[in-house]
Amino acid sequence: MLELKAEAARLLSDATGKPVSPESLGPAPKPEMGFFASRVAFELGGNPAEKAKEVAGKIKSPLFTAKAIGPYVNFFPSEDYSKQLVEKILSEKNNYGKGKQAESVMVEYSEPNTHKAFHIGHLRNTALGIALSNILEHAGHKVIRVNYINDLGLHVAKTLWALQKFHAGEEPPENKGKWLGEIYAEASKKLRENPEGDKEVRELLQKMDSGDAEAIKLMNETREWSLDEFKKIYEELGADFDKWYYESDIKGETKEIVKELIGKGVAKVDDGAVIVDNSPAGVNLLQRSDGTTLYSTSDLALAKHKFGDYDPDRSVYVVGSEQKFHFQMLFETLKKWGFRQGEKCFHLAYELVVLKSGKMKSREGEVILYEDFSKEAKERALKEVQEKNPDLEDKEGVARAVGIGAIKYSMLKVSNTKTIVFDWEKSLSFEGETAPYIQYANVRCHSILDKAGKKGKPGVVGAPELVYELSRFDEVVAEAAKEYSPHVLALYAYSLADAFSGFYTKQQVIGSKDEAALLALVGAASVVLENTLRLLGIEAPRRM
Ligand code: ARG
Question: Is residue 86 lining ligand 1, measured as CB closer than 6 Å?
Fold first, then answer.
């Protein structure tokens, strides 16, 4: 559709003498009334309906015809557009809809802390990061996927304190990383009830900071427990990283950076502490008066490494919205420090995930752990699949695709700026805005193609809703990439599946007079459904 719109915008500009952008072309009320429409006639003075007629009369293109509908100029794709589109989709396959953007974009996502739980907030983050990276790549960018692990500091000391104090000599369970997360929650609870413990935690932190051999050994050993757990989760979620950064590797550089920034006049000493004054937005604290550096200082070291290692044009951080101020300060300071990327840093902030039971905060131990959540998803999906298709092969595999797909999709279809209220029944339903509904549309495509036993041949078909949805995939990808908005693609996935379902209910394919052309259309629908699901990071089972 991008191509059609670009050409339409060009012709409209010629016809009216006014600049018309492709973005100004909005959807027509329904595809039967054209694939898109322009409201330029409103800007020409005089009677808009007459102007629309005049403009439409001047537009000639082999790609479409223009017709005035009231004050709008509507564009109808040419007669054989459906044939050309299906041909294009079937020949380009995975590359269909690929854009021409050419920047390099770093996407940092997931970023769980060691010694703490990987919970459903991290799932939202990871689902967003996977989808965003794939979308940016499909828009044409070169994408560098990175993870950043805070494996130092107070939270580590708390967990290790409780581990030693309450679990000494215990045999760790199978999933040691998950166990640490539970111990962290326990530590927080105990420290709230009994603040005297704080002193012991501080002592342990001190030991870790000063390189005490025993403390470091325990820290390193347990750190691996968390990392092992994260890697298993990433395998299940299909999360990939080009590079892992660890705070423990870069923390040592923070004091030098603070000195450098003071030397450059970017930072200044204020009452013994070191700050960057980013007013009116706020103040970036880099070093406390006791000489210790902070989370925010480590982020300066991290950015320096990232830019030095990959020199990306842009840098995106997928991190919860509670860190909005932190990133505002970071980006300001990076600009002052002199990084060209400072202008093109973006904090993709997302809101909480809640179940009906309420909020989740890891400090209060009410978290929903990823492991419990994904297990439930797979179990529920298995039940659905068993009920719907008792003869299915590899039920476990399909249930994993459906269950994990369902929880990811319910994270992705909601704009990142909105809180998710997660509902099991809704997420796993085979109807409505869900992964199973979209996956099932693709399964139907395959069952038609398998039954026909042949591929068909592109031809002119009259299925405007479906053709319309297939044609706008490139535009949706471009918009989702430009706005850093995976939910735009997630909602499109539903519209596409819904258009296919509408087609499927109305139109007999096998044995119809247009069988060959319709089979090719079904093949194209499956290609685009699978592309969409792939970009969202959701599996597309052949059968379910
Ligand atoms: N690990 C941090 C947390 O759980 C998030 C890290 C975000 N990334 C960053 N570069 N600061 O809050």
Answer: no
CA neighbor of 138 nearest in space, from 193, 175, 93: 93
According to DSSP, the residues that pair with 544 across neighbouring strands are none
* Cα 339 to ligand 1 centroid, rounded to whole Å: 21
Whose CA is closest to 334, among 308, 371, 368? 308
CA distances from 504 to 169, 512, 518, 527, 534 (A): 62, 13, 11, 16, 22
Dihedral angle sign, alpha carbons of residues 158, 161, 163, 165: negative
- CATH 3.30.1360.70 for domain 2-78, yes or no, is yes
Q: What are the tens digits of pLDDT across the range 175-205?
A: 999 999 999 999 999 999 999 999 999 999 9
Per-residue pLDDT at 455: 86
Q: What is the pLDDT of residue 363?
A: 42
237 alpha carbon – ligand 1 mean position (Å): 19
Ligand 1 within 6 A of CB of 299:
yes
**Share of residues in the chain with pLDDT > 70 (%):** 98
Mutate to test the pocket of ligand 1, among 123, 145, 150 (most ligand atoms within 8 A of CB): 150
How far apart are the C-alpha atoms of 519 and 539, rounded to whole Å? 23
Tokens coding 112: 């769980």
Burial class (CB in 10 A: 0-12, 13-18, 19+), 522: buried
pLDDT in the model for residue 387 = 94
Q: What is the CA(73)–ligand 1 centre distance, in A?
A: 49
CATH of range 109-364; options 3.40.50.150, 3.40.190.10, 3.30.470.20, 3.40.50.620: 3.40.50.620
**Residue 173: is its pLDDT beyond 90?**
yes
Q: What CATH superfamily is the domain 370-536?
A: Isoleucyl-tRNA Synthetase; Domain 1 (1.10.730.10)
The stretches of 17-80 forming alpha helices (DSSP H) are 48-58
The per-residue pLDDT of the chain, averaged, comes to 95
Sort strands 104-108 and 142-149 into parallel, antiparallel or unpaired.
parallel
Half-sphere exposure of 396 (CA within 13 A, CB side): 1
For residue 13, give the nearest of 42, 67, 55 by alpha carbon.
55
Cβ 301 under 6 angstroms from ligand 1: no
Q: pTM here?
A: 0.95
Residue 373: pLDDT above 50? Answer: yes
Task: Convert the pLDDT of each residue in 233-267 to its tens digit.
Answer: 999 999 999 999 999 999 999 999 999 999 999 99
Sheet holding 104-108, edge to edge: 243-246, 142-149, 104-108, 314-320, 345-350
10-20 pLDDT, tens digit each: 999 999 999 99
pLDDT of residue 364: 47
- Alpha carbons 542 and 254: distance in angstroms, whole number: 51
Q: What does the block give as tokens for 87? A: 């041909």
Cα 319 to averaged position of ligand 1 atoms, centre (Å):
6
